[in-house]
Design goal:
- By secondary structure, this protein is of the alpha/beta class.
- It has one domain: Spore Coat Polysaccharide Biosynthesis Protein SpsA, Chain A.
- The chain has 20 helices and 12 strands.
- Helix 2 runs antiparallel to helix 18.
């Protein structure tokens, strides 16, 4: 079988080895080589400023407490002892999310403790030279409307990561014949660190995996063939719109060096924080709506992944995996896999219990460019997570939390006040008093947590932006628009549920990434 790979294998500084169209036979790879010049980019003053700003960061708990007290006081003041036909309904739907809320609050407290114990200091601004090899894997669909973001993030990798990782390679995965192939090949020529891998159209996995999983599996097989499936090689999975900074490089290097020192107790998988700088957003509404995502990393993901069991799943950005472990699991999950990162995490939890970690490094993504793209993105996530939660090939206890959280997401439109009022109009009663007033503190906690997710997430996103101060309207808007964001998330989830119920072939929708 003939495959085509434009690739650079890094042996010595200053060299770029390019593998051009070659034959693949069994586990051997061969090709002609030539040397390209190395390119390095200077560290910008902004990178140092951002690193210093991150040193004192901690998730704040006091706003959550304030919102809880205010909401509880208001609800207690408005409540009466009697209840109406809506009582049983609201008692269930407004109480149900409490498990996720409690886990999130616990995760935030755990994160505060971790950061206090291991926070960055001025001395930590010094460059850490990591002895292990780092391979950054960036799959891209290779369209013209996704290329601008790809160009931005690849340049961030070759700018900042070499400061801590002398043994660095950036693997950009593209499909054979993709729209922006020529641009991407030219991007691959700017630095000795970049290797462009073309996944042949004829490539098929044993289980028929498609989409991003298929590309990941091809690169995974290539690393095995090149004998990079070793304990001292780490694979960093990134999306084609998510970049890094000097702070990311230092956090990664520190984590890997810590695992080297831990020996038999070392972790094999880790994840950091996905943030959204303001300058990477073309749409302010979707940027504000994505404010909840960084907080998910410092709450739920911190609790599960940081506790050694990534049962809440992981996201495809800033996902660090030891190459020897990834070689064992692989990415060949079958044709239905469109949330391959979460599926990988569940399998990892089963095979390597207690061996995952969370770290405070940040990566820098971009929100969807349009509200329509926001819906399409959420639809794909919900579609994939529903299928994963119902996949009986995975033990029930391993997919229990993903199933719970996905159900919470899918029924969120029915928790919306507008939906409850519509139901009240049908029943002829707008009385939302619960069947017992003892659930009011739970309601207040759920509501306070929802507001806190967006307000605290906005603080994180603002802090990593080029202009690291709030615009006058942002803090007000993000709170007032929480019901709108909830509806946007719910619509995406419902669309995913409908696609799942209809059956048919799953699709991996890739939205435009113009920045």
């Amino acid at each position: 079988m003939t495959t085509h790979v434009a690739a650079s294998r890094r042996d010595e500084p200053g060299e770029r080895t390019q593998i051009i169209p070659r034959q693949r036979t069994g586990e051997t790879y061969a090709g002609e080589t030539h040397v390209l010049p190395a390119v390095r980019m200077p560290i910008t003053p902004r990178a140092t400023t951002m690193l210093q700003r991150h040193a004192g960061w901690l998730p704040r708990i006091w706003p959550l407490v304030v919102w809880f007290v205010v909401i509880l006081g208001v609800t207690l003041g408005l409540s009466v002892k009697s209840t109406g036909p809506l009582g049983p309904v609201v008692t269930v739907v407004w109480t149900y999310p409490v498990i996720g809320t409690v886990i999130g609050v616990a995760g935030a407290l755990i994160t505060r403790r971790r950061l206090r114990r291991d926070r960055l200091t001025a001395a930590d601004d010094q460059i850490i030279q990591c002895r292990d090899r780092l391979v950054v894997v960036v799959p891209t669909i290779g369209r013209n409307d996704t290329y601008p973001a790809l160009d931005r993030v690849v340049r961030s990798y070759i700018t900042y990561l070499p400061e801590c990782f002398p043994k660095l390679r950036v693997d950009v995965l593209i499909e054979e014949g993709c729209e922006a192939a020529e641009k991407i090949y030219k991007l691959g020529e700017i630095s000795r660190y970049i290797r462009v891998i073309t996944v042949p159209e004829s490539y098929h996995t044993v289980n028929g995996t498609k989409f991003k999983s298929r590309a990941n599996n091809y690169a995974h097989e290539l690393r095995i063939a090149q004998q990079e499936d070793r304990d001292d090689v780490w694979v960093l999975h990134m999306d084609d719109d998510t970049g890094v900074g000097l702070d990311t490089a230092i956090a990664l290097a520190r984590l890997i060096e810590q695992q080297r020192a831990l020996g038999d107790r070392a972790c094999h998988l880790a994840q950091g924080i996905l943030t959204y700088p303001r300058e990477n957003a073309r749409n302010r509404l979707t940027w504000l709506a994505d404010a909840s995502r960084p907080v998910a990393d410092v709450t739920v993901y911190s609790a599960f992944t940081g506790g050694g069991y990534p049962l809440a799943g992981v996201h495809g950005e800033l996902l660090l995996v030891r190459a020897s472990v990834e070689a064992e699991i692989g990415w060949d999950f079958g044709p239905e896999a469109i949330v391959e990162d979460a599926q990988f995490a569940l399998i990892f939890s089963r095979r390597y219990p207690g061996r995952s970690a969370w770290f405070a490094g940040r990566c820098y993504g971009a929100s969807p460019a349009t509200v329509r793209d926001f819906f399409r993105q959420r639809e794909r996530w919900a579609w994939g997570l529903i299928g994963l939660a119902l996949d009986d090939r995975i033990p029930l206890r391993d997919r229990l939390y993903i199933g719970y959280s996905t159900l919470t997401w899918v029924i969120s439109p029915f928790q919306h006040l507008g939906a409850i009022m519509l139901l009240g109009w049908v029943l002829g009663s707008y009385d939302t008093v619960p069947v017992t007033l003892w659930v009011l503190p739970i309601w207040a906690l759920n509501m306070a947590y929802a507001i806190w997710l967006y307000s605290e997430g906005l603080r994180i996103n603002v802090s990593v932006s080029r202009r690291a101060t709030y615009r006058w309207w942002e803090r007000i808007a993000v709170i007032l628009l929480v019901p709108v964001f909830s509806l946007m998330e719910g619509i995406g989830a419902i669309r995913g549920l409908i696609r799942h119920l209809r059956g048919g072939q799953q699709q991996f929708v890739v939205i435009a990434k113009p920045v």
